Amino acid sequence: MDSLDTLSERTPMVPVYFSSSASGMVRSFAERLRRPVFDLTVREIRQSAPEGPWVLLTPSYATGNPDNDTIPEPVRRFLSQPRTRRLMVGVMGSGNRNFGAQYQAACRQIARASGRPVLFEFELQGTPWDVEEARRVLAALDLRLAGITKP
User: Fold this and answer.
1) pTM for the predicted model, two decimal places
2) Which residues lie closer than 8 Å to 115 by C-beta, 6 or more apart?
3) Rounded to 5 degrees, what are φ and ψ at 7?
4) Please, are residues 14 and 89 in contact by the beta-carbon 8 Å criterion?
């Protein structure tokens, strides 16, 4: 283990708030990130407010109507609070390439509207590589937010 790994282990982890459909694909991905995760389909969590910086993980759904909204209702409700929106530091998205132009539409729309970056995108429940890459991206974010630069 190098010094960066040790430093990373002692750095506070930014929590991930996610929404998942009944399929549980996004939930499965979130739970494999090895960090605090909060399910926005749970009313108490959706009505709470993050205490500090946080990351959103959202699916996108094709509705059959390109003008229709693709942002899941639990995500929309959670983001309706100004303080919650201000504390969001990035967005991650799950999508299905079969949705064509709607692929990652919710993630990209939220990032555009909030001025926050898209940190990572993956298809469906993600591959093992996707999970590892998302962990790496989030660990780098943890370090940046803690004011730690890589040696």
Assistant:
1) 0.89
2) none
3) -60, -45
4) yes
